Amino acid sequence: MDKEEKKKHLENIKARINRMTPNQMNINELSELIKSELRNEENLDQPNKVYIFNLKQTTRKQLDNLLNSRKKANNRIDEFNETRSNFKQDIDRCLGDLRQNP
Question: In this predicted model, what pLDDT tens digit does every residue of 83-94 receive, in sequence order?
Fold first, then answer.
């Protein structure tokens, strides 16, 4: 994937997570998106190591907390929003790197 394709890919993910609301289906989808993005980045010929580190941190600190919460989905709004916000930050940082290094 070249840089332009990666930018489009990341922008599409961002748009997708911006439309999510806190419910069990979106919690599962957010989890899969984060895990899939981490796997994809790790398998690239030239992975962005900072992006990988940030995705792992988001998984460890927010996603695990969201998934392991015993609350019902509609009562996990704060955990959901925190996870989504951190994932968006990870994407924004990666996009910033891509824009700085054309």
Answer: 999 999 999 999
